Amino acid sequence: MAGNETFEKLGAIGTLANLLIYLTTVFNLKSITAATMINIFNGTTNFGTLVGAFLCDTYFGRYKTLGFATAASFLGLQAIQLTAAIPELHPHRCAAKESGECEGPTAGQLAFLLMGLGLMIVGAGGVRPCNLAFGVDQFNPKTEAGKRGIDSFFNWYFFTFTFAQMVSLTLIVYIQSNVSWAIGLGIPATLMFIACVVYFVGSKIYVKVKATGSPMTSVAQVIVVAIKKRKLKPVEQPWLSLFKYIPPNSINSKLPYTDQFRFLDKAAIVTPQDEIKGDGSPADPWRLCSLQQVEEVKCLFRVLPIWASQIMYCVTLVQLHTYAVFQAVQSDRRLGNSNFKIPAASYVVFMMLSLTIFIPVYDRAVVPFLRKIRGKEGGITILQRIGIGMFVSIFTMLVSGMVEQHRRSIALTKPTLGVVPRKGAISSMSASILIPQFILGGLTEAFASIGLIEFYYKQFPENMKSIGGSLFYCGLAGSNYFSSLLIFIIHRTTNRTATGNWLEEDLNKGRLDYYYYIIAGLGILNLGYFLLCASWYKYKGNSDNTPELELHVNGEKQQSDKP
Fold first, then answer.
1. What are the transmembrane regions (predicted)?
2. Of 464, 81, 169, nearest in space to 345 by CA
3. Looking at the chain, which terminus has fewer C-beta neighbours within 10 angstroms, N or C?
4. Which long-range contacts (CB under 8 A, 24 or more apart) does 541-544 make?
5. Residue ranges per structural domain of the chain
């Protein structure tokens, strides 16, 4: 299973890592157009996971969904490879000059490229929400070994994912940028084909959980019945008085009563008009719901405010994959005194490298140490881990702004190293100075991104695991769309000011550092919002009223005892 996932990541990421450069150099798109296109593509890809998760949980199951999605990803990658291999499928190469208009893609060329990207969206829509859940299905959560295996699986899943990204951002990106786009794009397609073969060869050894029907039907029933019964008075001792029933074939764990979102409790109030069958189930599930159903919907509602904070947090990650690459393009990328230049997109590998190094250290050293001190299974709570990551993301943007300010100052005051076609002068600042912001980005992901995925998986009912997995990618989608909106607003607003456009094609004429500082400011506001949500949050299966974070009440420190 792990080997299959590695091939999938190598195949999928190999194209996406350098897609921004591909669009600007081969398809002759402007930087702001390419960045917006990448954001929209990533946003659509990530939102597609919600559809894939619904189809998986409702009709096909994870095994069939993953098989179909992997094949679609292969076809999409192959189509994109053909746009580079066949001259008629891309515009003529732009002349190497500082400014001037270049021939853009024709409608047919753009349509073929979009077809390939569309197939990749279909593939990602099935792979992303199901891959992690399918991997966890291979563990038995009822045993101690299974529980610990699941906890480590989240960390090592990201380790494998990041290893694949590192290979893509070094070897594959180098071939794409310096040898041949056709060969470089053919490698991911080949690897994805291998992923398809490996996946189906291992079919007989997988644990395959069948689809149990749409979990969203139960969610809709609770909401509809709660609205119908909104005029009823709340019952006393609801944990005793509300209607209780759990279907014998349910895979969900029994949940205790919680006193949040109490308006939903009315869906489980039994009235004289409600009929109950001999087996204890309601005769009409659209008139009466069980306490178990209500608590499952509460789990979903409690997660949504935390999910909203992810959207702003992930904007930082979006910049490290777009504008930080443009920073590298206009920096000195020579390796030592040689003429070898590190591809601009390859600098993202330092983010992956810091994540790859930190994950084993965190899993094998930091967690056991904190477990002994605090007595918690994970060392710290999931929300505390996410909060640390969000704090580091703010620091990441501040460092990025200061580095860009330094890069631009050197480009304007000291001799430059040539000109990038259609962009501007290359600053003599070494691109290695960009490495700290990428390292911080990796640490941000190690805490917040992994924490968010683990949070969604553990806090959703068992029959909604795929939807829980898709929620992380929907947050990434929101970040991509929000980033595009932010770029549009700043581009339109600053274009009319005396200081000029902050997001100029030539970064030396713009003020990208100001853009980074704005994101850092929004991140501070978002962290405050997250801390409020975390202090209110109650973990699934915990019915006490103790806040999750440490609070200070009457001047004395009160520590939460939540798991």
1. 12-29, 156-175, 181-201, 300-324, 344-362, 382-403, 438-457, 469-494, 514-537
2. 169
3. C
4. 541/253, 541/255, 541/256, 542/256, 543/256, 543/257, 543/258
5. 1-93+104-212, 215-298, 302-539
Among residues 405, 389, 395, 385, which one has the least CA distance to residue 519?
Answer: 395
Q: Give long-range contacts, CB 8 A cutoff, 24+ apart: 285-289.
A: 285/221, 286/221, 286/224, 286/225, 287/225, 287/228, 288/225, 288/243, 289/218, 289/221, 289/222, 289/225, 289/243
Query: How far is Cα 22 from Cα 181, in angstroms, rounded to an integer?
Result: 8
Listed ranges 19-33, 52-66, 164-178; the one with the highest mean pLDDT: 52-66
Confidence of residue 9 (pLDDT cuts 50, 70, 90): very low
Architecture of domain 1-93+104-212: Up-down Bundle (1.20)
User: What's the per-residue H, E or C state across 489-536?
Assistant: HHHHHHCCCCCCCCCCCCCCCCCHHHHHHHHHHHHHHHHHHHHHHHHH
Q: What is the C-alpha separation between 483 and 35, in angstroms, rounded?
A: 10
Residues 265-293: what's their mean pLDDT? 91
Cβ 520 vs Cβ 312: under 8 Å: no
Is 302-539 assigned to CATH 1.20.1250.20? yes
**Is the full-model pTM beyond 0.85?**
no
pLDDT tens track for 107-142: 888 899 889 989 988 988 888 878 777 877 777 666
